[in-house]
Design goal:
heterodimer; A: 309 residues; alpha+beta; 4-stranded mixed β-sheet; 5 helices; B: 579 residues; 6-stranded mixed β-sheet; 5-stranded antiparallel β-sheet; 16 helices; 55% helix; 16% strand
Chain lengths: 309, 579
Amino acid sequence: MMKTILSKIRKPVSLILVMALFVMALSACAGSGSTDRRSFLIVVDRTGGKLVSVKYTITSSDTSSKVNELMKALQNYSGETYSSPIMAGSLVSWEYEDSVVSVYFNSEYNEMTVVDEAMARAAVVKTLCQLQDVKSVYFYVDDAELTIKGSLVGAMDDSSFIDDINMNEGNTTLKLYFPNSDKTELTMIEREVAYNPTFTDEQLIIEELLKGPQKGEGNISDAYPGGTRLLSVVTRDKVCYVNLSGDFLQYLEDVPAELTVYSLVNTLTGLSAISSVVIMVDGNNLDMYNNFNCNILLTFNYDYVEVNE
Amino acid sequence: MIKFLKKLYSIKFIMVLVFFCITLAVSIIGTRTLIQVYVTRVEEQRVSELSAYATRLSNQLNITNYISSPNRSISNQIDVAAELNGGRIIVTNNALQVVYDTYGRAVGKTIVLNDVVSALNGSNASSFDWKLNYGYYAYGVPASDGQSVKGAIYFIFSIEDEAETLANYNRYSQIISSLLCLISILLGYIVSTWLLKPLKGIRNSMNKVSTGDLDAQLAEEGVWEFRNISSSTNEMLKKVRATELSQQEFVSDVSHELKTPMASMKVLADSLLMQDIDDVEIYKEFLKDIDEQIDRENEIIQDLLTLVRIDKKAEKLKVKQSDMNHLMEVVLNRVRPLAEKQGIEIVYESYRDITAEVDENKLIMAITNFVENGVKYNKEMGRVTVTLNADASYAYINVEDTGIGIPEESLNHIFDRFYRVDKARSRETGGTGLGLAIAFEVIKMHNGEVRVLSRENVGTTFVIKIPLNFRNTDHVEIRSEEPAADASATPSASAGTTSETAAAEPEIKEENEEVSVTESEPASASADAETAAETEEVSLASAGESTETPVAPRAEDGFVELPMADKQEKTEDDEDDIK
């Protein structure tokens, strides 16, 4: 119950937050990096189970001193239920150069358990990577690059760590083929969507295709009959098996059958892991779609793709 | 606006509001419980479904040493399992690094999620997100060989369908709740309208009454409370009608009584005018008769005024501590001349010294009436015995005569205005028929009681019971001593009595005048004769009874007992006794 309420609330709240941030970004346009001013310290819950954000306001102006400030704040952080991720006495120094932060530890660093070490590293990297100018972070222990289980850790950034239940997978740009507005050929559009942690790439793509054209994506038209649902999608040996609901057979009158079929096939075969597509409806192989024979392994077809100058 | 709000403060609106609030509360609680039950069930079911597979996979990974050296066939098995469950499986080593991801996207990253960390610490952990279109649940289990944790298996499965069901539940329960609320408003309105329907009838009838139709009757219908109030109101209306009727009767009685002397005067005057008479003696005789009629008229008017004044609520008793024996002396002294004239013996017996809080003037007037009554309606050589006694809380005055008695059927009416047992006779004895009515009113004002015991041709006994301590009811003003100050201010002064000469007891004197006008008209000779004829043996019977205690009822002698005061008053008196 709480979760559903929270999920309902989250949307407007995040919207408001985004708007607020936007307004702040507009008003505080003095120099680059001013958006760093409001930051978070990522600290560790005392039970060791999770990372927590704590509000922090940066006062420095240039990136180097910002890094200094954040590192000191992290090191000295002490709270009621949360504690500093950095083990006392282990931190030696840090330096910022060319978008890279190097953090140096002494041998005491190795005394942490593997889990605690991973959490601490995630906290430091995520805190530092909030700064726009910081692209990557390196850890050194006794002047040697950090190794975990015998392998070098190397450069780390925000995406090296998954600390969010949404898997921190961020957004991806999908290439989708839709019929053009004349319904004569397919047009490729790019759409940026957020990853869904429970969706495979195929699933994500097909769900986006079934949504049809979105606002601001002019010159394309819907290829799929309304109400069509994706029942399942599986890729085996580079063949993608797409199982759609029976609504798929409510043919669209004005869209040629081959455009609908190749909208799906061309889009899916755009993924490197897929070379051909088998379409099923309600679990049965689809032989004819309207009057288009699709009882074969369908591969990318350039015949229907609009050629851009 | 305020008018509108005031109108809202009604049973109907409150009922509708209460109905609405209850329904709303119940549906909100119900919906929440239902959804909570559903969510808990799904979560438990999902976890229990997965935990068996998770444990098996965990064992398999250990046996094949998958985490340190991943192999393709196990990866494929994991893929199939993830696909069948419609989700994603991630395997990490014990440094939180992703070893395998069925979606491939997270391999090589470090996963610092709570569920994974707990799994690495050796315990299963799960979390759910019920977002619509995005709902999933995560489940972390340790991959352990029994001694050390090698890594963790992290499942993320979609609960999109369940989230959608939940959203539907929410939507439907909202619709149903709002429908229920609407119905409850409607129901509240209908029920309250139905319950309050009789009220309109009651109001209409009341309006009718207020426009003057006293015959209006409320229908006794609807719920018990309304039937109750209707019947009470009907009772009230009955009383009002009775009062109205008695008032009309009173007016007609008054007119009749006032007319009689006028008619006599008219006849006498007419006959003088019509005839040509030279004899002055005849004129004198006629004028004497006219004079008598004028006196009578005057007397009736005086009595009426007294009665009206007593009836007025505004009339206040001037209560003070009084010596009852002294009071009785005054009464008897006043009546004695009349008694002597009629040859009636008055016996006074006092048992003790009694002081009571009474209005002396009024009480003297009242008791005088009772005693005079005994004298007037007595037989020749009869006797009136007056007894004064008291107990802890009441003074008792018995006035017992050896007279003609009162017929049983008349007993109920002797205190009615203008009521006379024998119309013909009473005209002869004089009196206006108001004396006992006035006396009764006075006793009632003192919260006292009057009982009448009577047997025809034997005699009548009035038992007057007066509380020693006056209870302050609505029309009372207790005064301590100085009666002289208010004497001129009392309405009785307006009765036309100007002969206040005795300075010692001005008030008593004043009442004295009034009462003597009322009752002390000399009885005519023929009345005496009649009384004498009816006396005879009765004097013996009454003589024997005169020594009895004043309160004792005498039903065994055939006397009819008539308690005149209200039952309510009586019980209150009894309570006072106990105190």
